[in-house]
């Protein structure tokens, strides 16, 4: 561990930052910073100087025109997180106001309205029930006695609608009626006192808004790359979250080829919270993967050999959301955890948690952010801990006594006013005592042997603060590659630096922008507008993680950069290393663009010249995406009732009470259910079933063989033969018709259980009969009847065989009943009832396990059970 | 509509700047240059009160482009820089300094010197704090270049004196350079900061002229002034100076002791340990053990064979003499819960054996004593060593077996 013999000169001041600052678009260009005599010794005639910034670096060039998807989009549509337009007040007037003043107006009233509509039970439950008789929702005039105790709500609703229409109008006045109503009931109508509710909502809104401006829960990123073993097959592992709520953790084998390719299906773990961060480190040839969600942190061990299954080791739960989880690169199974309450723990799988520090206040000056971070340093027992104001190092053996300041937002590091720490990272793989600190303006490299004075500082000029960083150490004197990634803007920046032991730290080469996920949009074929919009939304989702790896394939070196988006997509891009050629030939990108042309005027379709295999990958990805987006998953799709339809005017204008016919029908229904019987015809007059249309084919008696045997047994076989040969056909027909009529009359009232058994026997008869020949169909019988009447039991000639699983079956399957929220004990009853009603064969007993029936519920049927369904919740923020 | 015009102008300015930025970040220097020629127009109506105005942007972007543009030349660069110097008074010194840096990196030392002299004589009203700092830096760099000229003359003079004749003019010139360099260098190193190069040069000058007291004072100030950052190099320079001066062991040790306190992982700790081990005093030898244990705590020392051999030697000495086993015990106490996993895992035994046999020998010795003969690291290495029929590994095994009771005393 050598220390550079001489460092670049710099001033060292103390105290708060003096330089006024702000985001500066080009602040990082055109500066050498300082120079230092370096290179070959002083023996030469002239000293040779090297700059702190501006030395030549390695040349990396993008191999493709855009980043390429690595994995197919996962099933289950993605629910985008709230966008600014969801919670901001939208109106022309406000926009104008906002242009003048800074600051956004949150649409508080709309969110409160959403709450009342979506959770009426929670908002008005008890009083709503008490008072519902006193609210009239119709258009009709109220009658005299009712008027004293009933309010007509229709007018109020109209007033509200009118108010809504005039939204944002400066001269809006509350309708007096509304004012009167709200004055009257503001204090008692709400289940939760309105002031309290409003406070909570406002707090939540502010929280959401600040998350939209800057979401620090993603710090560190939720993507990790576990590189293949040295000299092994080029199969690494990608650890990333997925699923609709990003609560599944996947360990996916990835083969490093020209385009990295997923191999096999991933090892998958379902977690109980959204995965915020995935951190990994390799110790003694094994990878340790730490996973952070808000209230849980877990650690997995992944053995080094390829194909070995990851095993979960331990999980901890925190009361306050955790803000950081890092894995020790020194000792197996050691991690550090920070929570938003300002507590730092050293977590070792063997011995549990050790609290190192608890301080809700920030370290160097007061800052409101509860964000804390911690990482390891060159000494396995010394941990750094950070908040927005700086970094301190603590000795875990005596955390109260032994600590020193590593970085301070202040004059010491030449910070600007308002600068805050965004992401600290231990750069141990590049140099054991180096540290990276990013702020919203700059990136610093620190050496813990010289605390407080950054050995490198550079203004990164990124539009959003870099929340993700990845280091690729350059071995044996080569420069180290550092990738910085921002979340909201998906920016990716590649930096290079070298030095730290024999020579002082230098930034090498110029920073380079890499492709973002959304950048591929211009290369994709044009889509239908709504598809384009979906695609835009999907690809433009904020980035959620970053990982990269260097791949050496003989002389050819390349870098693979993976980027994860909040939608769960993992994209990858390859950069190839070019040997340094001092007179650099114009890069490919520059050559393709004519002089004077700007990216604005490029034809978007003409650019993807490098998309060969990539284009194929894209096509597959797009196809899968459209499949995912088109069919909403069965489990998430619920039939919903539009609320507006509950109170259409036509509904309300109808006769106030049920008509006599309806009353009669209801009574019959109730009676039938009590008796366990069934209703044959809905028409009240249909107590006697109408005569069935005449069947044309002659009904047959018992089959000739059994008749003959019976006759033989009785001893009058001769007579039978006589009859058989001489009995007039007409006579026989008459007798048969008579018998048939008798049978029909007897069928008038049959119990439910009887119909059950009969239909069962009917089934078995049918299967027996199928040997004898196809049963005859009744062509003249209208098919409607099969729903209204029941099949003539025991007469196989009439019913039609259940050819294919009818839609009703899907309706009745326990799966579908369950997913409609019907309690188990009622499922059987309902199934029985519906099966009779729909005349289907009875459902076999509930299948063991969960055989997901893949049948769709026909839309006509969905109305039936929608009443028993919980209404689908509107995706909306806040609660 | 003039307002609208202004707004549109600002918008197109911003758009242009973003194209430039985009081109720069993709290393498309030609394209960036073309956009920059358009952006120059923004200077005309510069109403912005932003942190970085258009003139500074043009300077920064233009410099960056000229560094990398395939067709740019040094002449063009100088020309551009001269223009930029006139563009903003506040930035004059900064631009001068950057210009000088570029000249220095391209080996144009004389031009750089001229520029520095010019900048030094520049006066414009009252200087801000930042300008003051920049001026000090300009003077310091000029002092540095004077120092290089001095050292060149000195070398000539030394060569000449070897040949047997002296040149008075050269000597005069050399003294002139010394004076100029000393004045400027002395100034900057008074201000808190990291001034490694300047301090080194100044001390070299002073030592040449025999002013050892001043040199010592400068180095002491640089190392021990609490307003300065805790720069390990300051202590290293002082230590090297003391060594050159032939100072006593005691003062060398005290200098290194302070370095050990601030940077226990410094590479000089090996020298420090050797120095302490040789000492007759028990306390010093004790400190030596502490120093080498502390150094090996750091990840950067993990595979340092030299450090391990230092530790192995001292531990062996203690075990053989059977005195001061409590020293080892005390050091081991705070490490026994994590050193085994950090240094003595089976994985590391395998790897060290493959990569560096002598390192694994030293480590196995230490492991065998600290963790007993049952330790994974020791077992693996000694077995491999015996298999490979290496004599010293067999002796190692015998040694550890013989002294196994020590382990019980240390861990107990």
UniProtKB/TrEMBL annotation, chain A:
It comes from the Eukaryota. Signal peptide: none annotated. GO terms for molecular function: RNA polymerase I core promoter sequence-specific DNA binding. Residues 289-428 form the TAF1C beta-propeller domain. InterPro entries: TAF1C (IPR038801), TAF1C_beta-prop (IPR049087), TAF1C_C (IPR049089), TAF1C_HB (IPR049090), WD40_repeat_dom_sf (IPR036322). It holds the Pfam family TAF1C_C. One of its GO terms (cellular component) is fibrillar center. Residues 870-879 have a biased composition (Basic residues). Residues 813-879 form the TAF1C C-terminal domain. Residues 578-609, 648-705, 765-879 are annotated as: Disordered. Residues 533-751 form the TAF1C helical bundle domain. Residues 789-801, 859-869 have a biased composition (Low complexity). This is TAF1C polymerase. It comes from Eulacestoma nigropectus (wattled ploughbill).
Automatic annotation (TrEMBL), chain B:
InterPro entries: SL1/TIF-IB_Component, TAF1A. The gene is Taf1a. It comes from the Eukaryota. It comes from Eulacestoma nigropectus. GO terms for biological process: transcription by RNA polymerase I. The lineage of its organism: Eukaryota, Metazoa, Chordata, Craniata, Vertebrata. GO terms for cellular component: RNA polymerase I transcription regulator complex. This is TAF1A polymerase.
